[in-house]
Specification:
Pfam family, one: DUF3024
Radius of gyration: 14 Å
Shape: globular
Organism: Paenibacillus cucumis (ex Kampfer et al. 2016)
InterPro entries: DUF3024 (IPR021388)
Protein name: DUF3024 domain-containing protein
């Protein structure tokens, strides 16, 4: 289990990340959210759904603390998780997030149906 200091550091980092990632003028059309529980953080993209005030959530990446390393998983179109072999497991969460942000293969930031 992650210690409280690490959890607070990650929450602070993620709050800044999701705020800066989507420009203010686009936030009515897309937003990033995250869910953190125990040793796991899931990064989501949300877009307006058919009904007013409803948002459709699409998982982007799953960060999982295991064996003193952050391992990253990618979501497929059926919302199943597969290991993201292009992301090197690392001790620092920020390093794992940076690899997802760069996404040189298009595994995370792609057009979705």
């Amino acid at each position: 289990m992650l210690d409280m200091f690490t959890q607070r550091r990650i929450v602070s980092l993620m709050n800044g990340y999701v705020h800066e990632k989507v420009p203010a003028e686009l936030r009515t059309m897309v937003k990033l959210t995250y869910e953190m529980k125990d040793n796991e953080l899931i990064l989501n993209e949300e877009r307006p759904a058919g009904q007013r005030h409803q948002w459709e959530r699409m998982p982007i990446a799953r960060f999982y603390w295991e064996g003193n390393r952050w391992k990253v998983y990618a979501s497929d179109d059926q919302h199943s998780w597969s290991p993201a072999d292009i992301v090197v497991p690392c001790f620092d969460f920020e390093d794992a997030l940076e690899q997802v942000e760069r996404d040189e293969s298009g595994m995370f930031w792609r057009e979705r149906d």
